[in-house]
Amino acid sequence: MYRRSLEKKLTEALQYYDIVYVGGPRQSGKTTLARHLFPKLPYVNIEHPNEKARVENDPEYFLSQHTAGLIIDEVQNIPELFSHLQVKVDDPDNEAKFILTGSQNFLLMAQITQSLAGRVAIFNLLPLDHEELILADIGSESLDDFAFRGGYPALFERKTPRSMFFPSYIQSYLERDVRQLKNIGELGLFNRFLELIAGRAGQLLNYSSLSNDLGVAVNTVKSWITVLEASWIIFRLPPFHKNYRKRIVKSTKLYFYDTGLLCYLLQIHSSDQLRQHFAYGSIIENSLIADLRKYRLHKGIFRGMYFYRDSNGREIDLLIDQGVKILAIEIKASHSYGIHQMKNLHYWQDLTNSDSADSYLLYAGSSEYRSRSGLFAPWQQGLEILRSRM
Length: 390
Hints:
Blueprint: H1 7-13, E1 19-23, H2 30-37, E2 43-45, H3 49-57, H4 59-64, E3 69-73, H5 81-90, E4 97-102, H6 105-115, E5 120-124, H7 130-135, H8 143-149, H9 154-157, H10 162-181, H11 187-198, H12 207-214, H13 218-230, E6 234-237, E7 253-256, H14 259-265, H15 271-276, H16 280-298, E8 305-309, E9 315-321, E10 326-331, H17 343-352, E11 359-363, E12 369-371, E13 374-378, H18 379-388
Parallel strand pairs: 1-4, 1-5, 2-3, 3-4, 10-11, 11-13
Antiparallel strand pairs: 6-7, 8-9, 9-10, 12-13
Helix pairs in contact: 8-16, 12-13
């Protein structure tokens, strides 16, 4: 059991709420974490046919048998259970605590907002982030290896070969979620869609282009993007919304939560192949942006990450809006640095009248150097610095 950033927040939440929900993708460690933190609570997996039938038969009686509470895994499989949970926790004499987990955010959040609004603390557990890997002493000195491996716990705790893990993950988990969320009859076409968006990671999301390449309607592409977001496979990074005298790009950018899965979809089978791949720079960018997003989600911070691009092509890979200050971050796959790499950060500072102390360039090298336009930081030190500022 690896130490997870969510541990403290989950235990604290039960002081104030009778229900805690932990969402996130399959195989991210949700069940392991819940059972580790609350070993005295009974555990039920609703995906098991017998357990599902037992709960469906009489939800009220089922809950009454667990006076101290319960860990309910994949709770979205019985939507009617939420209303019974509402009645249970609204009872003034209730002392039970419930831990709910699920991997289909779209279905779960719809039920939570309908039946349990204000009664549940909501958290999300993603694959291991960089800080968690370091704490577990399984971090990587190489940015290429970090991006190639990804962070699914099974790859480390059970040492499951990636050639076995990712095909099983896609076939046994993702396709099942896809069928439940959307009535997609042609999974072969959906798999083709997965490969296409993998090739567009780190790029502006163009629905029309994907529609043309797949031969499906734009609305179909949009619905499939929603499916992948609901299954915690991808996320969209919005453009920074303030217009500083220049017309800014309004399209979102697409990223994968886990670049190990991204590399698999791109048929990259080693870090050496990654370095030679046409999407190398985009994958490296994806890996660090996804890691910072995971870190923030694990801390309960859901918003505040953007990118900037104007009509002249000037771009900042990542902006972290902290209200008073905005951290501007560029990401490079190179092992060396040069002042010219800071030109967009310098432009950003002139545009916004911001301080160079809030600008960073993270790269694959090992030397740290502060220039007038910001800090050149090796990627691991850069992540550590940025975490300390969140």
